[in-house]
Design a protein that fits this description.
Elements: E1 6-12, E2 26-28, H1 36-47, H2 57-65, E3 75-80, E4 85-92, E5 96-102, H3 111-125, E6 130-136, H4 140-148, E7 152-153
Parallel strand pairs: 5-6
Antiparallel strand pairs: 1-6, 1-7, 2-3, 3-4, 4-5
């Protein structure tokens, strides 16, 4: 899989963060390894029209779950009131958001903003000074969301 041009974005976590209230009908679920296929399917769906890419399930899960920076408590599935997976984020222990996706039918409803704020709060509580992520340069909606939450390009590592 060829990596597309991207930019590394970063946010300092040393200030007071905005509230992380979930949109109505959305709740954070506890991730279990048995949810991996469902999470992968959401990533594929969300990335299908651009903005990211994910390898096939077997390669993705093997690389993810065996990585030294993997921790299941840094996987964040969001569900709606019917139990449908509407968003998923997976972070490395180094305060890096590795995968981040919102179901295409649920975008632009505040779910991504709330999930990122939740992640910021988690890493701030863990003592991280900054949080980072990669975003494809042509993912203009993603870049706009990240900028609106105080993230900016990391000029030292682009």
């Amino acid at each position: 899989m060829t990596e597309r041009p991207h930019v590394l974005m970063q946010r300092r976590l040393n200030d007071i963060l905005p509230d992380r209230a979930w949109p109505e009908g959305i709740y954070l679920d506890l991730f279990a390894n048995s949810m991996a296929r469902e999470a992968h399917a959401l990533l594929e769906s969300a990335y299908a029209s651009g903005g990211g890419q994910v390898p096939g399930f077997e390669n993705w899960w093997a690389a993810l779950s065996q990585d030294a920076e993997y921790a299941s408590d840094l996987c964040f599935p969001l569900r709606d009131q019917n139990g449908n997976l509407v968003a998923f984020a997976q972070c490395w222990t180094s305060a890096f958001v590795k995968d981040f996706a919102i179901h295409p039918a649920r975008q632009r409803r505040g779910i991504g903003r709330s999930l990122l704020l939740h992640i910021f709060h988690i890493f701030q509580a863990r003592g991280a000074e900054t949080i980072s992520l990669k975003v494809e340069v042509d993912n203009l909606r993603g870049v706009a969301l990240y900028r609106s939450l105080g993230m900016s390009p990391d000029k030292t590592r682009c």
